[in-house]
Every structure is written in C-alpha cells, then in structure tokens.
Amino acid sequence: MATGSFRLILCCVFVIIISESSAQTCDNEKGNFTINSTYHKNLNTLLSSFSSYKHINYGFYNISYGENPDKVYAIGLCRGDQTQDQCLSCLNDSRVSLAQNCPNQKEAITWPGECMLRYSNRSIFGVLETRPELWFVASRNITGSVDRFNEALQNLMENLTGEAALGDSRRKYATGDASAPEFQTIYGYVQCTPDLSSNLCTRCLSEAISSIPYCCKGLTVGNVVKPSCRIRFDPYLYYGPTVKIDPDAPPPLLQQPPSSPPGTSNTSRTIIAITVPVASVVLVLSLICICLRVRNANIKRFESIREDDDKDEITVAESLQLNFDTIQVATNDFSDSNKLGQGGFGAVYKGQLSNGQVIAVKRLSTESCQGEMEFKNEVLLVAKLQHRNLVRLLGFCLEGKERLLVYEFVPNKSLDYFIFNPTKKAQLDWERRYQIIRGIARGMVYLHEDSRLRIIHRDLKASNILLDEEMNPKISDFGMARLVVDQTQGNTSRIVGTYGYMAPEYAAFGQFSTKSDVFSFGVLVLEIISGQKINGVGHGEHVENLLSFTWRNWRGGTATKIVDPTLKGSQNEIMRCIHVGLLCVQENADARPTMASILLMLNSYSLSLPRPLEPAFFMDSRTRSLSDIQSSEYNSREIRTSESTNKSTQESVNEASITELYPR
C-alpha cells in the first residue's frame, strides 16, 4: 500500500488524521466481555488458529468457535496479491492490534493495508454488511479535466465490480487500470468477502463506488472500506500480481478450530463404538417425544411472536411521535406560503423545527378512510427502512383527527417536475439521468432483498422519486407498499397504483410481487431516457403509448428515436439502459430480471444481456376497457398525486395516479 497519512472519515463525519494501518472500530453496542471469561478464551483460541489451516491459500478464512451464548465468529480476508505467509502475517498483526485497542468488545473490525479482520458474537457469514463505512483520502488533486477523470474512474470501478462479483466462494477480487487526462493512470482494485453471493457483492461494491463523489471529489486517491467489501484507486501502482489459486481446489467450508489434539487411543475408539449406537437410540426416542410436544407448542409460540411484533411496532411508533403544536409552529400554522403541493389525500407543507432542521409535512385529509390506512402503513413500514435512496421518515403526529407524516426535506422536487418539462429537462444531462436510474435501482434492491423486511412498493413512478441537492434520487410515498414475509408474491382484490406503471398480472388479477415493481421500474427507465410519459408519445391523432413506441423502434433498428433529443452522452450506456428497460416490462413476470440482476446489468458491461420479449402494451383483452377504468377512477374518488412529499404547487394533479380496480 502507498505510505503516508490519510484523513479518516466515519459516517461522513471528519474524525482525525491517522495512518491507514490504524483504521479499526470497536463496537460497544454489541456488548462487552470480561477478561478470562468463556467468550474471551474462545476468542483467543479462534484468532490464534489461522496458521493451522495450511490448505487455505486463497486468503479467506471464515471460522467459528465455541457454543452459544459464547460462540465467536471471525472472518479474515487478504488482498488477492498476498501470499499465504504475507496473509497470515497481516492477520496475526491485526489480531494483536485488536486485542490492544478493543480489549473487551464482543464485535470489532480492523482494515490494515493488505487484509481485513473482524469478529463477532453473532453469525456474520454470508451476510451483507455495509456499516461502518470508512473513507481514506489523500490530498492529491486531479490535474486536467475533472469530468474526464471521473468518467474514466467510474468505468474502471464498474468493470472491476463485474469481474469481482463473478468470482467463486474463495475469491471475489479484481484489479485493473485506466487512462486519465494529462497522461495519468488510475490503478484500482475492488474486493468482497467471497462468502457473499454475486448479487450481494455487486450491491456492496456499487454502494462503495457511489461514495466516491462524497469522499474523494476532485482527488486522485480514494479508499472506501466496509465490513463486506472494499475499493481503492490511486495514481501509483500499489498492488502486485494476483496470486493464482488451484482452479480444482474445493470451495471453503465453515471452519472450526481443533478443540483437542489429533489422534485417539484404542480404548477411546472402543468407548465411542459402544456409546454412539446407544446414544442414537436414546436420541431418536427423545426426538419423538419432543416433536409431539413442539407440535402443540408451536401454535402458542406463533401467537407469542405476533404479540411481540405488535409490541415492536408500538415501540417504533411511540419513539417517532411528535406533538401537533410543534409541527403547527414549524409550518407557520400550515400557511399557504409553505404549501408544497396538494393531492387527493391532503397537502404537503415545508416547515422548520426549532433546531433549524427543514422538514416536509404531509397533512392527510380528515375525510379519507384510505388516508388513515396509508398513514398507518407508512409509519410502520418507512420507520424501519434506512437507505440513502429512500426518503427518511422523521416522525408523525396522531392527534384528534389530525394525521401528519414528517419527512426529511428534499429540495429539488420530484423527477417528473424535470423530465416531462420541455425547459427543465435540459438540467438533467445523461450523466445525471444515469445516476438517477442506478440510484433508484439500489433503493429497490434494498426494499426487495437487503432490508430486514421484504417491501413491495406498488407505486413506483416519476412523481414518487425525489431529488436531493446533488440530484440523487430518493424513493418516496410508501402508502401503497406491502410487506411480504417468507414469500415473493401476494394477491389482493384492492388494486392501487398508477395506470401505465402497473404490471399486467397486477392490473388484471391483483397478483403483485417484486416483479410487478420491476415492471414499474422498466417504465420509469424508458420515461427517463425518452423524456416522454408512459401514456403518450406524439401529438394529435398519432399518439402511441411509450412501450409500444419503444418496442417498435427497438425491433426496427431505430432505437435512437426513443432517446430524448436533448441528451448527449454515451450511446452504449443509453442503448444498454433501453435494453434493460425492455427486459423489465416483458409481459411474462418470470421473464423479468430481479432488481439485483438489473443493478448488476447497469454496473457491469462485461455481462451480455438476454434478448427481450415483447412488452405488455398496457392491458389486453383479459382486462376491462380503458373507458371502464377511467370511469372507475372518477367514481372511486381515489385520484391523487402521490405526494412526492416536496412536490411543487406548479405540478398538476395526476388524474391517473390512484386507480381502484377490481379484478374479475
């Protein structure tokens, strides 16, 4: 690694000037142990056992030792250019360093230059963990064109991500270089803990890459480390040739340090030969008795779990509850001058709390029963979600007939405010639109797979994508979202969402799944690229829906007609995004990719994309006619703008925003 001092930034906050070799965190929130306790002894046994695994020559150790509640789990990972001796030396130095600096924490992690060592009292194998995140940067400014440097860096990191994610369970690692302006060369490497799947590795690295504009803007050196992955770039070559591993060697299994010396006596073998069969018979009889008792106990246990979940939700809700007077003062008594938007479920106001924090307040209509359902849904769901591409719920108020949701204020309004406006769309060049597409994809991957809940949004559209100061996207409005547990799909007789964004199986039969969100994402991608709304491309009598327009031109070899004429950017990227969009809107839900696969497609150009099938052109003969739908929309009185929380008053109400359909 390059020597020198680095600025360490933890959770986007400046901490201290240190050398990279001292980067580590000791987590007091996960508990502490006492010296010479069982946990302490297990930890020492585990961390001193790395050298006993002579067969591991690929730099990855996943080891556990002991029994619960004192069981210890550890992961050791070395950079791919490290020999076995170099790797063990780095891990042993890390073990000594952690013992000195984290003397009694049950969970700790260190990132010296060439390896990573972490341990915990909980299972950490195969689990994507992106926090804490540490940044190392050096004060070396870019010479020449910053935009060209950033473009070269972005392409390099994305290509390396695709290569590393395709590695096996022994190594997910890639290095490479790229040419930059002023005869500069960028050297980069990316690495994941290889116990992650390809999709999880891609997600971790993509999130690390997305931190580069924040940690390393205008700099030629950057290093972002997370528990599950790591990236680095530098103008100097700091890594050596990748150490080759035997392609025929078996993948690693979970290792257990030896608890006793190898070899046993003949007497021991005799005792074992006698006791094992007897113990087996006793065990079988015991299991039969236990199964009969557990069978009855499961019902009671299920009820107990339900009660515990309810208590958790009540606890979450109580911790976020705000006083009505506080919000009333913050919004100047909900004055019209602070009004950001008006929809069928109420209005959105800008406000400022006494501590100076700017907020957006959704004040739900007191007449809407559905508004109350939406209110409870958003509080319980959104309060549990934390991601940079999701709007953050700060609190709520339930007082009398008043139901208020308080969000972070996102200043740049919603995506539809820009892309459908002939003048304002010019503010979103291709680089920004591509950033928005990938940010939305990251947020959806979190909802579908990475959060502890599986969330199906059901109303993903341009007006529900808010843009922050840097035009980064934030998914909003979870009033229609559904939580699914231990399943990937569900059915409903109450169909809500936005006509045109709804997948055909959902609009026709009430079948919703993560793939129905994928359909909505595909429509959104095509809208972002074309600058056209889903419900009409063209003018006068020659109006065509966006999906059929896109498919016709894609099949006819005239895909450039799909692209917004104001866009000037990489044609390869634009065409690839159109391809991904068409894969998302295929009529057969099973043929659509998952959001994790989509993110991989967007981040890696080394992957070949399958040929898309014909998309679903709105609803076919199996569903009601358009006039029936429009009549239902009018009569249901459920037409609204999905509060893009900070939506401008200049935006019109989208009359197709909420559609109550009833499947046959």
UniProtKB/TrEMBL annotation:
Record's keyword annotation contains DNA damage: no
TM ranges: 271-292
Example GO biological process: response to stress
Coiled coil regions, renumbered to chain: none
UniProt membrane topology term: Single-pass membrane protein
InterPro entries in the cross-refs: GNK2, GNK2_sf, Kinase-like_dom_sf, Prot_kinase_dom, Protein_kinase_ATP_BS, Ser-Thr/Tyr_kinase_cat_dom, Ser/Thr_kinase_AS
Pfam families given in the database record: PK_Tyr_Ser-Thr (PF07714), Stress-antifung (PF01657)
Sequence positions that bind ATP: K362
SMART domains per record: S_TKc
PANTHER family: CYSTEINE-RICH RECEPTOR-LIKE PROTEIN KINASE 29, RECEPTOR-LIKE SERINE/THREONINE-PROTEIN KINASE SD1-8
Top-rank lineage group of the source organism: Eukaryota
GO terms assigned for molecular function: ATP binding; protein serine/threonine kinase activity
Keywords for this protein: ATP-binding, Glycoprotein, Kinase, Membrane, Nucleotide-binding, Phosphoprotein, Receptor, Repeat, Serine/threonine-protein kinase, Signal, Transferase, Transmembrane, Transmembrane helix
PROSITE patterns: GNK2 (PS51473), PROTEIN_KINASE_ATP (PS00107), PROTEIN_KINASE_DOM (PS50011), PROTEIN_KINASE_ST (PS00108)
UniProt name for this protein: Cysteine-rich receptor-like protein kinase 29
Subcellular location as annotated: Membrane
Stretches with biased composition (Polar residues): 642-657
Signal peptide, first to last residue: 1-23
GO cellular component, as recorded: plasma membrane
Domain Gnk2-homologous: 21-124, 130-238
Region (Disordered): 629-664
